């Protein structure tokens, strides 16, 4: 197992495939982008699949979430999915994407065995989308979501970040759209993971504010907290509303900053250049790429991995006055 000293066990592996992205979202990176990792520093497909195999067969990993940057930019992605789903025991597989290129890739990903997708969608307004993402690609994202649903990559989950005086007025509209199309919406508090280090607590839209906006137009009924488990989202039922398949409509709120869920965290992250991060906000990483390339055995790599997770802190510390933002931005860590 991948246990830490506080009794938590990591079973959910987030695998970053690249730090590159084809959007320039204001809460993530500057307009000009970032200095990307050199290709030689990135894990190869074989190296990624070896680490996924070790995690799944030796360390108790049950879910693989492919992330980025933008993971659809990784050549050979269907092969990585197929290699992961061929393992015994078979891990549940998911993909977090901005949706650009998903319309083209969804059938191949479904064929490879991918179970579902999470798509980032912060607005339904093309003008606001361009302001936030600095690209005119809203139609591509919407087409990608629809293609994922057709391909059976369900439930399609939607991640939305509300920015004050930019898109915060769209909370209810986004929820109505997702319910109508059968997408499961999750609002996420903006986190201090931008490359510009411009995050400010006093401008962040909090979980309480998100719920206040939704409650103005919907009757929300909190889901049973006992069923939440390690899920990051607090789930709410929309009283009297259903998805197109007849199931009760829901919405989630992920209050990473104001309502931290560190005590139930079951996640561990592998960066595109082979570093283990035991927390999204960790200041330190553990290198697996070097021993991997120097001939370490599977058992030796597994031991290093266990040691990395054992050192996990009790919480992310955002609310501590001494908190320091990680040196790597979200695009280089993987979600």
How would you portray this structure in words?
By secondary structure, the chain is of the alpha/beta class. The chain contains ten helices and twelve strands. It has helices spanning 45-58, 77-85, 102-112, 126-133, 138-150, 171-181, 207-215, 289-293, 298-310, 330-333, and strands at residues 12-16, 63-67, 92-97, 116-120, 157-160, 184-188, 220-222, 234-242, 248-254, 267-270, 275-277, 286-287. A twelve-stranded mixed β-sheet has the order 7-8-9-6-5-4-3-2-1-10-11-12. Helix 1 (45-58) packs parallel to helix 2 (77-85) and helix 1 crosses helix 9. The longest helix is centred in the first third of the chain and has 14 residues, at 45-58. It is globular, with a radius of gyration of 19 Å. The relative contact order is 0.16. The mean pLDDT is 94.
Task: Reconstruct the topology from this structure.
Blueprint: E1 12-16, H1 45-58, E2 63-67, H2 77-85, E3 92-97, H3 102-112, E4 116-120, H4 126-133, H5 138-150, E5 157-160, H6 171-181, E6 184-188, H7 207-215, E7 220-222, E8 234-242, E9 248-254, E10 267-270, E11 275-277, E12 286-287, H8 289-293, H9 298-310, H10 330-333
Parallel strand pairs: 1-2, 1-10, 2-3, 3-4, 4-5, 5-6, 6-9
Antiparallel strand pairs: 7-8, 8-9, 10-11, 11-12
Helix pairs in contact: 1-2, 1-9, 2-3, 3-5
- On the 0 to 100 scale, the average pLDDT is 94
How large is the share of residues in beta strands? 15-25%
- Report helical residue fraction: 25-40%
Query: What can be said about the biggest beta sheet?
Result: 12 strands, mixed
Unreliably modeled segments = none
Q: Strands across the major sheet, in which order?
A: 7-8-9-6-5-4-3-2-1-10-11-12
Estimate the global geometry from the Cα principal axes: globular
The total count of helices amounts to: 10
Per DSSP E runs of 2 or more residues, the count of β-strands stands at 12
Distance between the termini: 22 Å
Rg over CA atoms: 19 Å
């Amino acid at each position: 197992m991948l246990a830490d000293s506080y009794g938590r066990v990591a079973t959910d592996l987030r695998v970053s495939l690249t730090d590159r992205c084809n959007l320039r979202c204001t809460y993530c990176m500057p307009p000009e982008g970032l200095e990307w990792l050199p290709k030689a520093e990135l894990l190869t497909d074989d190296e990624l699949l070896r680490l996924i195999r070790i995690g799944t067969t030796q360390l108790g990993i049950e879910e693989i979430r492919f992330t980025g940057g933008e993971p659809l930019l990784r050549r050979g992605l269907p092969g990585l999915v197929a290699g992961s789903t061929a393992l015994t025991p078979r891990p549940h597989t998911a993909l977090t994407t901005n949706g650009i290129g998903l319309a083209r890739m969804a059938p191949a990903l479904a064929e490879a065995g991918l179970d579902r997708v999470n798509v980032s969608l912060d607005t339904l307004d093309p003008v606001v989308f361009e302001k936030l993402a600095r690209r005119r690609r809203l139609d591509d994202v919407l087409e990608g979501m629809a293609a994922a649903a057709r391909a059976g990559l369900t439930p399609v989950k939607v991640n939305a970040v509300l920015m004050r005086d930019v898109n915060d007025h769209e909370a209810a509209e986004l929820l109505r759209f997702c319910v109508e199309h059968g997408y499961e919406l999750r609002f996420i508090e903006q986190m201090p993971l931008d490359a510009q280090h411009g995050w400010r607590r006093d401008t962040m839209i909090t979980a309480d504010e998100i719920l206040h906006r939704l409650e103005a137009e919907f009757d929300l009924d909190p889901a049973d907290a006992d069923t939440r488990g390690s899920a990051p989202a607090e789930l709410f039922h929309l009283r009297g509303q259903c998805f197109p398949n007849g199931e009760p409509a829901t919405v989630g709120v992920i209050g990473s900053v104001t309502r931290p869920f560190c005590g139930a965290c079951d996640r561990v992250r592998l960066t595109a250049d082979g570093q283990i991060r035991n927390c999204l906000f960790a200041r330190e990483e553990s290198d697996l790429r070097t021993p991997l390339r120097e001939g370490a055995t599977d058992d030796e790599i597994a031991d290093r991995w266990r040691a990395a997770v054992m050192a996990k802190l009790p919480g992310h510390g955002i609310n501590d006055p001494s908190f320091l933002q990680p040196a790597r931005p979200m695009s280089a860590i993987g979600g």
